[in-house]
Design a protein that fits this description.
By secondary structure, this protein is α/β, with parallel strands linked by helices. It is built from 19 helices and 18 strands. The protein has an eight-stranded parallel beta barrel with strand order 2-3-4-5-6-7-8-9, surrounded by seven helices. Strands 13-14-15 form a three-stranded antiparallel sheet, with helices on one face. The protein has a three-stranded antiparallel sheet with strand order 16-17-18. Helix 8 packs parallel to helix 9, helix 17 packs across helix 19 and helix 18 runs parallel beside helix 19. The chain is globular. The structure holds zinc ion (ZN). The site of zinc ion has 4 residues, from loops.
């Protein structure tokens, strides 16, 4: 049986741009568009020309891509002609392959929000589709509030969709704008729509307000829809849109879909999807969601010893797909619950061949347990665990020594009469025979210490230039009688790799210093710096 084509429409740059705290520059948009194009989505909705300078600039010139570069806009305003509507004119003028119009498809919204008649709304849909087709664009219609509208007045909701389809729109997209529709309702309603409009012209646009946007998208496909709209990492207003980073692997790896459908994403591109997801987080300066399906750091992490020993025999025992297929990796957590099998497997992954009866193994296990009792958590701090193991096996060179550091925090009134807090760090480092002194100012004591530490490492400086700190987390723990501070630092480098290091102390600067040092030493080892 030949497989049907299922189309992916990404709206990270339009709907996703409406996320709280997200503000894409033109350069950001171009970077993300290229990433999406390499991933293999069919449509990239890049913005709303005329609505703001960034989006207008994006569409000011042709952006050659494999994907259909899509401009978003409203259908003509009620009571105007298509030739006398500046908003529509900006969308029609955009250098885009396709235009996605949004129109209301609920009689309630037409009356209350649009303050026009049902017939005028239908005429606006027909006129706008016709105008865009006359400009040679492929046309899509996002039917806003479709599911809520359909429940109240199915004939009118359907009439809106039919108006666009009959006028030659390539796709009518059914939107769950408020995100409250449940999967069984989506399946039923999409099934009814597909009796009137062929499913290979029907799309789904689901919001995640009941945490079911992904499930709703699949429900629509089961009922006949052949286009899925979504965003990277589920970015989007309120609770977000359907997450393409979860949808794509499911379409590529689950028999229910692979047996029936082809999508534009290749196996090789699927192998980069974890990277794509993290690259977007980096660009947004956000910490990646550790528990994200398929791509999260914990998605293939196993803690309990008995699971770990089974996974070593056959990974399929506790994994629903192989982590490599989505560019992730298996992680056997080394923690106070872990047995020797986790430890052995983790050492094996790092590349140390240690015999299971090696006495150093027991010492390492004891060391991990002792440290976890005072607040360390190696299951998150993979790089610090690797260093601990390497140290016990005698495999960490002494690259440099920090002989002394001094961190100060000063609050004062500046020249403008404002109260400011300034942090300053001075670090004395010995690298071989060389004694190096660096000073730096930072927006806080840890930032100043980090900047000073990484400012000058003499002959090792070139090995750490790509190192950057991407996340810093602090927790106060009650270990025994006194409170201690646990610091976790996430770092990344030019290759896109990321790792986490840990420090624990009653003093937050001390704890941070340990984690910073581990990160730098880890990077030196990783970069192959000579001892
Ligand atoms: Zn939306």
């Amino acid at each position: 049986m030949s497989r049907e084509r299922l189309y992916l429409f990404d709206t990270t740059l339009r709907d996703g741009a409406q996320t709280n705290g997200v503000d894409f520059t033109l350069a950001d948009k171009l970077t993300i568009a290229r990433m999406l194009d390499e991933l293999g989505v069919d449509y990239i909705e890049a913005g709303y020309p005329g609505a703001n300078p960034t989006d207008t600039n994006f569409f000011a010139e042709k952006r050659p891509m494999h994907a259909q570069v899509t401009a978003f806009g409203m259908t003509r305003r009620p009571g105007r002609s298509t030739s006398n509507d500046p908003g529509l004119a900006a969308v029609l003028a955009a250098e885009a392959d396709a235009i996605c119009f949004v129109a209301k498809s609920s009689d309630y919204h037409v009356r209350v929000a649009l303050e026009t008649t049902e017939e005028e709304n239908l005429a606006s849909i027909r006129d706008s589709v016709r105008a865009a087709k006359a400009k040679g664009r492929e046309v899509l219609l996002d039917c806003e509030h479709f599911f809520d509208g359909y429940k109240a007045n199915p004939d009118y909701a359907l009439a809106c969709a039919k108006a666009a389809y009959d006028e030659g729109a390539r796709w009518v997209v059914l939107c769950d704008t408020n995100g409250g529709t449940l999967p069984h309702e989506v399946e039923k309603i999409v099934g009814e729509v597909c009796k009137q409009i062929p499913g290979d012209h029907v799309g789904i646009h689901a919001h995640n307000d009941t945490e079911q946007a992904v499930a709703n998208s699949f429900a629509a496909v089961r009922a006949g829809a052949r286009q899925i709209q979504g965003t990277l990492n589920g970015l989007g207003e309120r609770c977000g849109n359907a997450n393409l980073v979860s949808i794509i692997p499911t379409l590529k790896l689950k028999a229910e879909f692979t047996d029936k459908f082809d999508i534009g994403v290749s196996d090789a591109a699927l192998g980069h999807i974890a990277h794509v997801s993290h690259a977007l987080d980096d660009l947004l300066n956000r910490a990646a969601d550790r528990h994200a399906p398929y791509v999260g750091e914990s998605a293939f992490a196993t803690k309990a010893g008995i699971h770990a020993s089974a996974i070593m025999k056959d990974p399929a025992t506790y994994e629903h797909v192989a982590p490599e297929t989505v560019g992730n990796k298996r992680k056997l957590l080394v923690s106070d619950q872990s047995g020797r099998s986790n430890l052995l497997a983790e050492l094996d992954r790092i590349g140390f061949a240690v015999d299971k009866d090696d006495p150093r193994l027991s010492r390492l296990l004891d060391e991990v347990k002792e440290r976890e009792a005072i607040g360390y958590a190696y299951e998150t701090a993979d790089a610090s665990f690797e260093l601990l193991a390497r140290r016990l096996l005698g495999k960490v060179p002494r690259y440099f020594d920090v002989e002394q550091f001094d961190v100060s925090v000063e609050q004062r009134i500046n020249a403008k009469g404002e109260r400011v807090t300034v942090s300053m760090a001075v670090v004395k480092v010995r690298v071989g025979e060389e004694l190096l002194i660096s000073a730096a100012e930072g927006n806080g004591p840890v930032n100043a210490l980090d900047l000073a530490l990484r400012k000058d490492l003499g002959k090792y400086q070139s090995f750490i230039t790509g190192l950057e700190l991407t996340d810093y987390r602090v927790r106060i723990l009650n270990a025994g009688t006194e409170a201690v501070t646990r610091v976790l630092i996430e770092s990344a480098d030019e290759s896109g790799d990321r790792w986490t290091t840990i420090g624990v102390s009653s003093n937050i600067i001390d704890a941070s210093f340990q984690a910073l040092m581990d990160s730098i030493v880890y990077k030196l080892i990783k970069s192959g710096a000579p001892a």
